């Protein structure tokens, strides 16, 4: 995962002994030597062996031939990423046009590793592979919750393993400005609240990512989402910032009518642009609140004077000037899709986020596009939902028009932006402007210790969408592979499982099992329902404890997916899976006894008792179904039980209405519901 | 844990808000500030909150008064470690004579933390505490398997949490010399095999430990266990070292008749003694093979010439000269108990390891003693076995005399050393010479990723033995607290659980659960039975894969201990625990179905199938017993099943005979056996 463009597997496999003998043809570099070093360390981790020496002389060492060209486009959108890999009895042969292809080939090799009795082996294979899209990213918001460098490096390592190549860092927002500035020291002293990366740390992180073929695209959001910056430099504000003002945190905006704002941003972006060598520079541009500007008399006067009827027009002027500043600094400007609402220079890259229709409108206007609509990880949707969104489909993501109209009183102008456009289409020329996609993770309710489990394994499924042919879309097959990939990521360093254990042990020290068992069969409610304060005037939620079972539960219950898979096999006639189904259901049913015991006297866990009971009821229904129970009374009760779960899913099916609807206990959805429904014959 | 010398708990608890206001009285130092920093970080980890600012001004901040003297004995055997701690509605009051007491008081505070719905709290308490012994150590062998600095730091952090104060590092042995030497660079180039700590790393590690009140006592083993050193400097050898010789790895010894040996060791110990500032310096002295010396004609002639009838006398001369060298360098020499077999200077500290009787003999000869007999963690015994060994009991540990005689043909002279002495006694004067104890972990079959789970939680139980009054010895109560402490260590950074998951996921990627469930109910066979090559001429086992279920299983199954506890409560009449017992037993029984599925085609896991079936049979027997089954046939079958488990335990009950006896499948003991026996009424 991601599945290669073309792969043939032969019977047999190549045992991996203590030594590898790397034979270089072409351009051997220190970067590639380090890549081989990582490869052998990961091979050792996956195989449970000491790291094989990469330059073992002859003897039993496996030859690893690497033929690689030197690619001047490495670490750019033009990097040559294709590779050809052959594993057979003679050894391993890897051919690539440049370093990116070597990294990808080594990542693929690791996924071919099989454990063996004495030593691991690599399956025989012939693979010819290249990505569908050049831009395959994740975005991490380090402003709302700060993430340590160590945590970011773990994500970069995992990204390399699944061939993602862009880490977009959202480095400034209302909650904090996260990079040390020497030009504007108050950004560090005042706007970071003590949580920031030093310039040395940034340089180290950029180099760490570059080693792994990953570009870091920085984002410093303006003119909106700039509360922290404006706390430090209030003279640039449209409305005077008040420390601690929960509303302003999200809406404060820079005054675009002041020449000083542009002088400031020219110097700031210059400093930051030198720290982040990538050609792309994300300047934000999202969610500017019109009243920030219209309620400032000077700005209102400026708009009148320039004949601007809308704040979009004012923002377009701002965007054009920022684009010019960045272009002068050798950068290509990116912005969220709001920047495309009024005409701007067409070389500005538009990140389509509010809906897939912006892919069509932005490319129609000639903009290169990066797609994040449909890939928002903070919606806490299961991987399957993102997996089926194609980056070239302009109708893949958005609010149904009738719903958007219904919600207009609540959404205001946002209703138009979110509304699906059934008439949106793409031409081949437009398709070619789509550089790829990004999965954003906004971190209102994601702490540093939660990041690994919120980003993964879903990002691996999305990586496949961005890399593999569009025809690869079998969800069941994806989940089977996803469980394996997630464990491979954990074995090689990801802390997803480790941190989940820590969170559960904190809630129930000495007996974390029942909490984990509940979390393993459930998922948090979706679409910001779990973000308790999102529709209460602010996106920061300092009062919300992020240490509840729903923070431990993952958006994908891989155990429930496996159960669902087995249940459908059983219903299709495969009786061999029955004992395993019974085991799973028995454990879920019986967990409630243990959960009731550990939750006694612990308020956070007591809140989740009804969820544990619901899991018990579902598991019992599954066991009853396996036992052949079919009477009317049972069917009625089971239907009601299943319907209750459907209502809970439906209640959180839409971001706008979610928190208003009644929520299931402890914000938990019961993920074994579909499998139980299948067994009960009620689907 | 360790339980304080005196503790009173009052009803109520102190909520921990966002701020702590530390009020210092007495000597505030940078070291103490860092200790408070660690305390707040751990408090945050345990409480699931952001780290409270330690100098929050007034408001809702909790006052933490620390009154501390300056102790010139800090980081020495004379450190003043006592402290007094009061937690009540007014805040926290900590009084100590020196930094050690502050560290201990903060460690105790962390164990009083209770999770709460919105914020954690600390239980009201009045504690007056001081250790029973000043020397409370663990020993880690980093020669047989190298351990990274990061891994060692994790152990040091955990040691601080349970008030251990000595980390004895076994830094050289046959397999490698692990510290960079600038005086003798071949030790680094040749004898380390590429795995060593740089001098900078050592200085950093020593400082890291010192910050946490922990002294690092280095050991550079001579004259035996010096194969690696002699590979680099063969001119000092008694027998010419042959690279790769499996026998010599353990027995090669320095030639004690050469003046050059003493010149070499004076310079080497001088260099190493400057790196490790502790006054104590461990020079080894164990397991010198007599034939290494007697078969060298020049050494034999030397012995005749000096009238030495035994090699012990020759070693005593060596020991006396090394003691003089170290004394000249300001060090106090330590050695394993072999050094006390012939008269040596009485200020040499003797580490009693082969049996508790050496505590008596060495103190009778006037030596200070550190006790490791009875605390060998590499025996893979459960915590309870070590917990009940008192450091002052000279008959606590050793081979029964009859058994020793029976094994004499196999053991040779070692039979005398291992033999229990029923007449050994201690006087109060001798008692006072016992400085404390150490739990050694030799790492023949312990890799870096296994270290956390092999060292913990057992070291916490042993820490209690070294710290708490001798009267604290309720095993059941110890296990209840141990499970909680282990989770607290994992929440604050220990990787025991995380690495167990990684090992299981490596064996069964995508479905690690069944492997973990088996490992959670079992433990590895004991007393070097799992060390497959120990009695085959070498202690290194390069062919032994250390990634099997028995490497994942812990010496203590905490789940089985909880089960045993509940089973005995049930038998005593408490019927309320029945549902939980049924849940546990059902899960263990049903796990076999899942284990059989994941093990198919995987040789390492297939080997463990019989162990999984045995677990299933035991669990079924427990369920039958709960269901009231009592018929003769069932009793006979259950008795046979239980007897089989007893035989497996008995077969690994003795280190000398262990590998000879038939071993249970996959080297796994079934830890739920006692609980099942209790339920079956067959005990």
From TrEMBL, chains A, B:
Pfam families: Glyco_hydro_20, Glyco_hydro_20b. One of its GO terms (molecular function) is beta-N-acetylhexosaminidase activity. GO terms for biological process: carbohydrate metabolic process; ganglioside catabolic process; glycosaminoglycan metabolic process. Keywords: Glycosidase, Hydrolase. Belongs to the glycosyl hydrolase 20 family. PANTHER family: BETA-HEXOSAMINIDASE, BETA-HEXOSAMINIDASE A. Residues 1-130 form the Beta-hexosaminidase bacterial type N-terminal domain. The keyword Hydrolase applies. InterPro entries: Beta_hexosaminidase_sua/sub (IPR025705), GH (IPR017853), Glyco_hydro_20_cat (IPR015883), Hex-like_dom2 (IPR029018), HEX_bac_N (IPR015882). Residues 133-469 form the Glycoside hydrolase family 20 catalytic domain. It comes from the Bacteria. The lineage of its organism: Bacteria, Pseudomonadati, Pseudomonadota, Alphaproteobacteria, Acetobacterales. The active site is at residue 287. This is N-acetyl-beta-glucosaminidase. GO terms for cellular component: lysosome; membrane.
């Amino acid at each position: 995962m991601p599945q290669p463009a073309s792969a043939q597997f032969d019977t047999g496999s190549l045992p991996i002994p203590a030594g590898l003998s790397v034979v270089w043809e072409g351009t051997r570099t220190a970067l590639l030597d380090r890549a081989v070093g990582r490869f052998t360390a990961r091979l050792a981790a996956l195989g449970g062996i000491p790291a094989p020496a990469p330059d073992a002389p002859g003897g039993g060492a496996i030859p690893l031939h690497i033929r690689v060209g030197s690619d001047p486009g490495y670490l750019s959108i033009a990097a040559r990423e294709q590779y050809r890999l052959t594993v057979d009895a003679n050894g391993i042969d890897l051919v690539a046009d440049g370093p990116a292809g070597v990294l990808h080939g080594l990542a693929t090799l690791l996924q071919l590793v099989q454990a063996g009795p004495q030593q691991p082996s690599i399956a025989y294979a012939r693979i010819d592979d290249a990505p569908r899209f050049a831009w395959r990213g994740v975005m991490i918001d380090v402003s709302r919750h700060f993430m340590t460098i160590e945590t970011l490096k773990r994500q970069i390592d995992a990204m390399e393993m699944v061939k993602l190549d862009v880490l977009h860092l959202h480095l400034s927002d209302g909650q904090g400005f996260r990079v040390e500035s020497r030009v504007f020291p108050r950004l560090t002293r005042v706007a970071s609240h003590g949580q920031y990366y030093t310039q040395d740390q940034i340089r180290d992180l950029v180099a760490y990512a570059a080693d792994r073929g990953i570009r870091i695209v920085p984002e410093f959001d303006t003119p909106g989402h700039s509360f922290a910056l404006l706390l430090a430099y209030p003279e640039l504000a449209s409305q005077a910032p008040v420390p601690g003002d929960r509303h302003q945190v999200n809406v404060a905006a820079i005054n675009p009518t002041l020449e000083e704002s542009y002088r400031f941003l020219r110097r700031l972006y210059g400093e930051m642009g030198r720290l982040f060598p990538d050609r792309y520079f994300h300047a934000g541009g999202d969610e500017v609140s019109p009243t920030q500007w219209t309620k400032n008399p000077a700005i209102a006067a400026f708009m009148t004077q320039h004949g601007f009827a809308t704040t979009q027009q004012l923002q377009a002027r701002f965007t054009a000037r920022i684009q010019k500043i960045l272009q002068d600094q050798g950068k290509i400007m990116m912005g969220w899709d709001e920047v495309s609402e009024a005409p701007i220079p067409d070389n500005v890259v538009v990140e389509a986020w509010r809906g897939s229709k912006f892919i069509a409108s932005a490319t129609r206007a000639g903009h290169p596009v990066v797609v994040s609509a449909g890939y928002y990880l903070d919606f806490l949707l299961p991987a399957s939902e993102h997996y089926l969104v194609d980056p070239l489909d302009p109708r893949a993501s958005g609010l149904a028009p009738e719903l958007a109209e219904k919600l207009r009183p609540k959404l205001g102008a946002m209703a138009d932006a979110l509304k699906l456009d059934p008439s949106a289409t793409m031409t081949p020329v437009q398709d070619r402007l789509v550089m790829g996609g990004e999965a954003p993770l906004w971190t209102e309710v994601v702490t540093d210790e939660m990041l690994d489990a919120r980003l993964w394994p879903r990002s691996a499924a999305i990586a496949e969408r961005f890399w593999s042919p569009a025809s690869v879309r079998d969800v069941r097959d994806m989940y089977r592979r996803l469980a394996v990939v997630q464990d491979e990521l954990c074995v090689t360093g990801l802390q997803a499982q480790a941190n989940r254990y820590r969170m559960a042990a904190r809630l129930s020290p000495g007996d974390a099992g029942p909490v984990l068992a509940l979390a393993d069969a459930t998922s948090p409610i979706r679409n910001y329902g779990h973000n308790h304060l999102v529709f209460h005037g602010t996106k920061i939620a300092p009062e919300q404890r992020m240490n509840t079972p729903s923070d431990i539960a993952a958006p994908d219950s891989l155990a429930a997916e496996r159960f669902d898979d087995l249940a459908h096999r059983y219903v299709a006639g495969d009786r061999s899976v029955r004992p395993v189904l019974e085991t799973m259901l028995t454990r879920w049913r019986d967990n409630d006894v243990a959960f009731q015991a550990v939750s006694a006297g612990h308020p956070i866990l007591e809140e989740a008792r009804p969820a544990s009971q619901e899991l018990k009821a579902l598991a019992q229904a599954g066991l009853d179904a396996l036992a052949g129970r079919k009477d009317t009374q049972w069917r009625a009760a089971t239907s009601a039980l299943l319907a209750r779960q459907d209502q809970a899913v439906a209640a959180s099916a839409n971001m706008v209405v979610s928190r208003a609807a009644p929520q299931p206990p402890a914000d938990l959805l019961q993920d074994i519901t579909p499998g139980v429904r299948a067994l009960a014959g009620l689907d």
